[in-house]
From TrEMBL:
Location of the active site: 129, 309
Organism: Ganoderma sinense ZZ0214-1
Signal peptide: 1-23
Protein name, entry field: Transporter
Organism placement in taxonomy: Eukaryota, Fungi, Dikarya, Basidiomycota, Agaricomycotina
Keywords: Aspartyl protease, Hydrolase, Protease, Signal
């Protein structure tokens, strides 16, 4: 059970971190965003949205498999690992598929920025993902990996070491990456984790190779690590290299950033409303949530759990609950029953908000809108979808469509997620 050892290390480090010398400041890492679920003409990209849903379902299925391997059990409320999600159901929707601007498909749904690995450091452009816990980048020996910036070559790093075992991640039929495991120095915005476990993948499916980033840096907890090791931020905390055991995201059209080692007061106003994690299964999961439409709490939905996941583009909830949300939206219609997608009149978008017992955090009409249902329609597809992701009953997954509305802080010292008003 490597994760148990990891927790001991972290706990000790938290104590020592208060007394030992620290890096002086948190550091901002600029992020780049490309948005793909809406086509260049403003229409909804159906295929990209379904593909994203399949990828997210499989990502969280992988997390469950990792959790079971690391802890010997399944999280409470999950009775079985769901079967892998597949793309088959697209076939029944060829009429919708045809109106998809396919040229946009490889544009991506991630928030990516630079990190460095090794001595001397090599720069990699990675997706920062609060919904997974491993770091992987391409290996120099990987011929199929495109590599936006760098490729890792153990022979060229004086601080690298090869470890035993292999890393594997699979998202859908044929989509995934795998490779051997190493440790080396990893630096994210000036915060260093020495002997950080990661994989330099030697095999990468074309879908991932072409997505414009080098790899992924997972920012969730050790329990869901495929490597069964501490993720970057846990290591940095254990080594006392972060000023505060907090990182925070501003996700916006302009000026997005990940701030490591604290929060960046330049980007938010007022206090941060923190909520303790409701579960310690490896996710940034907080409970006691409710949904609101046009100033009223949606009835008939018990307070629910939410996983805050920067690696998910939209928002997903249990199909029956999401149906209740849209039932409260005047003029809403089912757009695609299988995918739990709904539309609403573009000229009178609903005010949808979530709360966790404190403020109501509104989703702007821009962030709710995934695009029009066609080139000349007045119906817009909503970024809240009803899809069963096998995460357990009553668990919602709030991705970028939510995070773009707030400043989001992830506190390891408090085991809490906080929201503040964006400046
Ligand atoms: C990442 O680093 C490269 C140089 O290696 C630079 O051109 C690029 O702008 C950086 N990207 C971001 C988002 O900081
Ligand atoms: C890791 O993968 C390599 C290459 O596929 C294989 O030779 C090796 O046996 C694997 N190791 C483990 C521990 O699975
Ligand atoms: C992004 O920032 C630039 C320069 O500050 C501004 O001209 C542009 O309108 C902004 N774009 C958005 C979508 O806010
Ligand atoms: C949150 O957790 C802290 C311990 O980390 C505890 O002191 C505090 O009372 C908790 N807050 C709530 C609202 O449960």
């Amino acid at each position: 059970m490597p994760y148990k050892t990891s927790f001991v290390t972290v706990a000790l480090a938290l104590v020592s971190a208060t007394s030992s010398a620290q890096a002086d400041i948190g550091t901002a890492i600029p992020l780049r965003k490309r948005n793909s679920l809406t086509g260049p003409d403003g229409t909804f990209n159906y295929v990209a949205t379904i593909e994203h849903g399949v990828k997210i379902a499989n990502k969280h299925r992988n997390n469950l498999l990792n959790f079971r391997r690391n802890t010997g059990r399944l999280p409470e409320g999950v009775s079985a690992i769901p079967p892998p999600a597949v793309l088959d159901h697209i076939k029944g929707h060829s009429h919708k598929r045809q109106k998809v601007p396919l040229t946009d498909l490889n544009d991506d749904e991630e928030w990516a920025g630079n990190i460095s690995i090794g001595t001397p450091p090599v720069t990699f452009f990675v997706d920062f993902d609060t919904g997974s816990s491993d770091l992987w980048v391409p290996a120099s020996s990987c011929t199929g990996c495109r590599g936006a910036r760098g490729k890792y070559n153990i022979a060229k790093s004086s601080t690298g070491a090869k470890m035993s075992g292999n890393f594997t991640i699979t998202y859908a039929d044929g989509s995934g990456a795998s490779g051997p495991v190493f440790t080396d120095n990893v630096v994210v915005g000036g915060v260093k984790a020495a002997t950080q476990y990661f994989s330099a993948v030697t095999d990468e499916s074309s879908e991932l190779a072409e997505d414009g980033t080098d790899g992924i840096l997972g920012l969730a907890y050790p329990q869901i690590s495929n490597l069964g090791q501490n993720p970057f931020f846990t290591t940095a905390i254990a080594q006392g290299t972060t000023k505060q055991d907090v990182f925070a995201f501003k996700l916006a059209r302009n000026g997005s950033e990940l701030y490591v080692g604290g929060t960046n007061a330049a980007h938010y106003s007022g206090a941060i409303e923190y909520h303790n994690l409701s579960s310690h299964i490896g996710y940034w999961q907080i409970g006691g949530a409710s949904a609101h439409v046009n100033g009223k709490t949606v009835g008939g939905i018990a307070t629910f759990q939410t996983i805050i996941d920067s690696g998910t583009t939209i928002m997903y909830g249990p199909p029956a609950d999401v149906k209740k949300v849209y039932a409260a939206v005047p003029g809403s219609k089912v757009y695609d029953e299988d995918q739990g997608l709904y539309s609403y009149p573009c000229n009178s978008p609903p005010a949808i908000a979530f709360s966790w017992g404190g403020k109501w955090w509104d989703i702007t009409s821009d962030n709710l809108n995934l695009g029009t249902t066609g080139s000349n329609t007045e119906e817009c597809v909503g970024s809240l979808a009803g899809l069963d992701l096998g995460l357990g009953s009553g668990i919602w997954l709030l991705g970028d469509s939510f995070m773009k509305n707030v400043y989001t802080a992830f506190s390891v010292s408090q085991n809490a997620v906080g929201f503040a008003k964006l400046k």
